[in-house]
Amino acid sequence: MSIDPQIMKTLLKLQWMQNLDRNGSTSNVLSPDSQDGSSLFGSMLSQLLSGATSSGFGLDSGDALLTSSGTDALMPMFKGVMPPAATYEFSQTGASETTYDEYIQTAAAKYNVDPTLIKAVIDTESSYNPNAVSSAGAKGLMQLMDGTARGLGVSNPFDPVQNINGGTRYLSYLLDKFNGNVQAALAGYNAGPGRVDRLGIQTDADVADKLHLLPQETQKYIAKVMNAQAMYIFS
After folding, report:
1. Is 89 inside a domain boundary?
2. What are the Transglycosylase SLT domain coordinates in residue numbering (predicted)?
3. Out of 97, 102, 125, 217, which one is annotated catalytic?
C-alpha cells in the first residue's frame, strides 16, 4: 500500500512536535483530551498501513489527512503550537529558494547554523525584504542595528550577502552563548543578550519559566520564529 506523501508529511510533523514538547522547546502541543503524541502517531500510522476508512482519520477512498480546508483532521492537536493564521503569516514567497538560498546555505555552513532557522529569522524579521527598515532603525533582511552591523563587519546592511552573513554570525554567537538553546538565543536576538542575562535566562527551560518577564514583542517573536522554522522544515 502506498502512502500519500502529504499524509506522511503530516504524521512526521506530529512526531516532530511531540519531540519538541518532550525536549521542553514547546509546551501544550497536544490538546488536553488527546493521548500521548508518540502513541497517537503510531496509531495513525497503523491505521494508514491497514487502510483505515472514513470512520478513522478520513482516509476512505484515498482521502488525505490534509484537506483543501487545511489540517482539519489534526487541528485539535496543533492548537497548542500553531498560531492563528490571522495572527502570523509566513511569506514563503520562494525567495529563500531562489535569490537568497545560496547566501543562506553559505552562511549556515560557515557559522554552523541550521539554514531553516536562518530562513525563519529572515521571514520573521523582514519577510524577505532586503530594504526593510524598522521603527527602531534595524535594517535589511535580518534587521541589524547599525552598531551591531558594524561590529559584525557589515558595511552595507541592505546588501543581502553582507546582511545574511552578519545576521547569521550574530545568531551563531548567541547560540554558542546559550549553549545551543534556540529559544534563549532568539530572546537575545530580539531583546538583546544583556537583557536576557539580567533575567537569568540561559536555557529554553528558563525561557518557559520566565517568559512573562520578557517584553511581549519578544514573547511573540520567539513563537513566530519557531513556528516559521517548522513551516520551512516541512515545506
Report:
1. no
2. 102-200
3. 125
Nearest Cα neighbor of 164 from 174, 176, 152, 173 is 152
125 catalytic, yes or no?
Answer: yes
Give me the domain span that covers residue 161. Answer: 95-233
Asked if residue 90 belongs to a domain, the reply is no
Q: How far is CA 146 from CA 7, 136, 150, 185, in A?
A: 45, 10, 6, 20
pLDDT in tens, 98-126: 589 999 999 999 999 999 999 999 999 99
Q: CB under 8 Å to 29, separation ≥6 — which residues?
A: 17, 18, 20, 21, 37, 77, 78, 80, 81
Q: Indicate whether 87 belongs to any domain.
A: no
The answer to pTM > 0.85 is no
